[in-house]
Amino acid sequence: MVRVDELADSGGLLGDAGALRRRLAEDGYLFFRGLLPVAEVRAAGAGVLAELRRGGWVDDRGIPSVDRRALNSMEALGDPAFRAAITSPAFNQLPYLAPLRGLIRLILGPQAFSYPAKVLRAVYPEGPPGVARGRYVHQDYAVSGVQDMLTTWVPLMEIPVRLGGLAVRPGSHLGRPQRPRVLRRDERGWAAAHYQEGDALVFHCLTSHAALPNRGMSLRLSGDFRWQRPDQRVPAQLVLGPAGGRRELFSRMFAREPWWEPVPAGMSLSPREQLAAIPPGPSRYFAVHPGWQRWQPPGGVVH
Ligand SMILES: O=C(O)CCC(=O)C(=O)O
Question: Which of 57, 95, 147, 301 has its CA 20 to 30 A from that of 112?
Answer without folding.
Answer: 301
